[in-house]
Design brief:
heterodimer, A: alpha/beta, Rossmann fold, 5 helices, 5 strands, 40% helix, B: alpha/beta, three-stranded antiparallel sheet, 10 strands, globular, binds S-adenosylmethionine, binds magnesium ion
Chain lengths: 127, 281
């Protein structure tokens, strides 16, 4: 598995703070500000191992990106997709899981929660 | 505010006698940083005065509050994950293969359960692998801290707590969402648990939990480290008294069994040990 991680969020502050945590854990960070840019990033870096994915974004939202990603045979199960979102209702969680998300983080996130979720997915921190 | 030598010694002895926890001299700062907020909260004139109050009435509600401040309650769901995987893959299959499996209940004790995350994680694991676990598996959750036990009983956790250690699939399966971004365990899960306050360093603990005995599995995790070695031995021997021979004990990552009178065999799961009780008493 590569150390590459794609952080998708329309808010720059979120991309920066999430990126900072993941970088500290040893990951190489790629960014996208919406689902459409994220699809482009996946085309250029198909070996990205984890996607941290916001839900509400302009142009293409996180859920639509997830469905489009999982529709590609080579991404049917990988990379891992972790939703990181203010959508904290149970129906959203069920929808994301059915759409192929692997984990779900309700904002606000913290480093401890992120590390727990990586451990749950069996992902070792590179550092 | 800082503590005199005499007050430190009194506080040390009080804590050791009532909780088993042994605060070393070099952890003086810990005493001060945890107790100073109580001094302010109760408008007590000094830290010294607080120590006097606690030592003169060691069973008061205030004394309990002080003990609670000094014990570390930190916990999370599915902590370290391997104990729950070992339950799933080794312990439950073995229990189900026993000749008496379909007639008797499986009894599990979470012996320093803090706010209940450990006990509920055991219950979720059982429900995931054993059909009918809600009827057959009985889990007793105990802790020294009355507020922690009350919290566990309520089964309501914050958004932060439910994200610590818990896979999202378990959350959506076993919890219901309350309005204020908190989450409550389902009745099915809740119905598998019972709760009690119990102090591991007192022989009374055996009587408190005995009517649930004999246990097939005991979790005593991340509490032994706070005790000195003789205390640890005694605690392990007490626990052994309420386990059936062949039952399993899970200690914290890095905590080993040091019982005097009980014999244990290490079982390795992914290079981490848990313990099978060979004989006791
Ligand atoms: C760090 S928590 C561990 C919780 C859980 N077992 C885990 O591993 O996550 C330690 C707990 O031990 C409890 N404790 C401390 N001394 C105790 C004693 N003498 N008897 C019973 N519980 C005790 C504390 O109240 C606290 O809730
Ligand atoms: Mg957004």
């Amino acid at each position: 598995m590569s150390n590459k991680i794609l952080v998708v969020d329309d808010a720059k502050v979120v991309r920066v703070s999430l990126g900072k945590i993941m970088k500290k854990l040893g990951f190489e960070i790629f960014e996208a500000e919406d689902g459409a840019v994220a699809l482009e990033q996946m085309k250029s870096h198909p070996d990205i191992a984890i996607i941290m994915l916001d839900w509400n974004m302009p142009v293409m939202n996180g859920y639509d990106f997830l469905v489009a990603l999982r529709a590609q045979p080579k991404h049917a199960t990988l990379p891992y997709v972790v939703m990181v979102t203010t959508e904290t209702g149970m129906p959203s969680m069920l929808k994301a899981l059915a759409g192929g998300a692997n984990e779900y983080i309700m904002k606000p996130f913290s480093e401890s929660i992120i590390r727990d979720k990586l451990e749950i997915l069996g992902i070792e921190e590179p550092r | 505010m800082s503590l005199s030598e005499r007050a430190f010694t009194n506080m040390h002895d009080f804590l050791k006698k009532n909780s088993g926890i042994s605060v070393q001299k070099d952890k003086m700062y810990l005493l001060e940083s945890r107790l100073n907020p109580l001094v302010r909260k109760h408008g007590i004139s000094s830290l010294e005065k607080l120590v006097d109050m606690v030592c003169s009435d060691q069973t008061s509600a205030f004394a309990h509050e002080v003990i609670d401040c000094m014990t570390t309650n930190e916990t999370l769901f599915f902590r370290d994950s391997y104990p729950f995987n070992a339950l799933r893959e080794i312990v439950f299959p073995e229990l189900m293969a026993m000749p008496s499996a379909n007639i008797r209940n499986i009894k599990i004790w979470s012996a320093a359960s803090s706010r209940g995350q450990e006990a509920y994680s055991i219950a979720m694991t059982a429900l995931d692998v054993l059909p009918g676990a809600d009827k057959q598996v009985k889990i007793l959750a105990t802790d020294l801290s009355p507020p922690a036990v009350e919290y566990a009983k309520g089964g309501i956790y914050s958004q932060f707590e439910v994200q610590r250690g818990m896979p999202i699939q378990e959350l959506v399966k076993h919890f219901k969402q309350l309005g204020d971004s908190s989450w409550q365990v389902n009745d099915k899960l809740r119905g598998m648990l019972s709760f009690n306050v119990a102090n591991l360093i007192s022989d009374n603990v055996i009587h408190t939990v005995r009517h649930h005995s004999e246990f097939d599995v005991v979790f005593c995790r991340n509490v032994l480290i706070y005790f000195e070695v003789e205390e640890r031995r005694k605690v392990i021997d007490r626990i052994a008294k309420v386990m059936r021979p062949g039952a399993y004990l899970f200690t914290g990552n890095g905590e080993r069994v040091e019982g005097e009178n009980s014999k244990w065999e290490a079982v390795n799961y992914n290079k981490r040990p848990f313990w099978k009780m060979l004989s006791a008493r």
